[in-house]
Amino acid sequence: MELLLSLLLATVPLVDGNLADGEVLGTVGTRIVRDGESLIEIAREHNVGFNAIAAANPGVDEFVPDEGTAVTIPNRFVVPRAAAPGVVAVNLSEMRLYYWPRGKPRGEIASFPVGVGMEGWHTPLGTFTVVGKTANPTWIPPASIRREDPELPARVPPGPDNPLGTHALRLSSGSIMIHGTDKPFGVGRKASHGCIRLYPEDIPRLFELVPVKTRVTIVREPVKVGLRGGRVYVEIHDDPDSDADVAKEATRLLAARGIADRVDQQRLQTALEQRRGIPVDVSIEAFF
Fold first, then answer.
1. pTM for the whole thing?
2. Is 237 tagged catalytic?
3. Measured between alpha carbons, how far is 109 from 215 in angstroms, rounded to an integer?
4. Which runs of consecutive H residues, i.e. helices, occur in the chain?
5. Residue 118: how many CB atoms within 10 A of its CB?
6. Catalytic residue flag (residue 179)
7. Model confidence over 253-265: pLDDT tens digits?
8. Which one is catalytic: 46, 167, 179, 193?
């Protein structure tokens, strides 16, 4: 009973503040499924996307998990290579956004799960700039989306049914924005027309943090490598839209960091096969 209570109360805080040690942020926790819950609600409760919680819990029914199941909460992340001070970095492979405030240590990176472009509407890769910020935005559906759904109104005013949510950051790419959503179940999924969606509770915080003219870098990093407390971690994502050979990419990154000789190859192979999207300690024990 005591163990069950501790698991029920287990929570994982947001990834920023003093949660970082080196290049790996946050913690991995556990949560017991309650009656009537799905992984969608549990993911949102712990600020992770649907994709992340599903990958971290293979074999668990995503929509009707058994009551009492112990679910892994994957709230630990290797900082992506695209992250830099004063930059918003979006890694499509993990469907997660990172913002490193200028002048702050790596440990104060803020990180949020995101929804991205669906098939045929891929979120573009590249470097952009935040050119405008709008609170309580009005959505004007582009002609391309209205052709898909001719019954859409010409304008959707601010409110609970607005697909942009409560806040929007417009990028220099034209129609692409970082915004909230009226469909939070789409966070951690390929569900948008190219925009980057945040949970309704996350977008006001990002809106406040990020100034106009901030650089936004959108990348695909299915493989990330980092150090925490001197130990070597790899994070592997199963990204079908990436043509990267994850084994070769992991080898290349480890060699580039000069830490390949500190890696247990069997541990690395297991991480490559499982692709659970969680940082895995692949260190050779003899080094520690």
1. 0.89
2. no
3. 15
4. 2-8, 39-45, 50-56, 143-148, 203-209, 246-257, 265-274
5. 15
6. yes
7. 999 999 999 999 9
8. 179
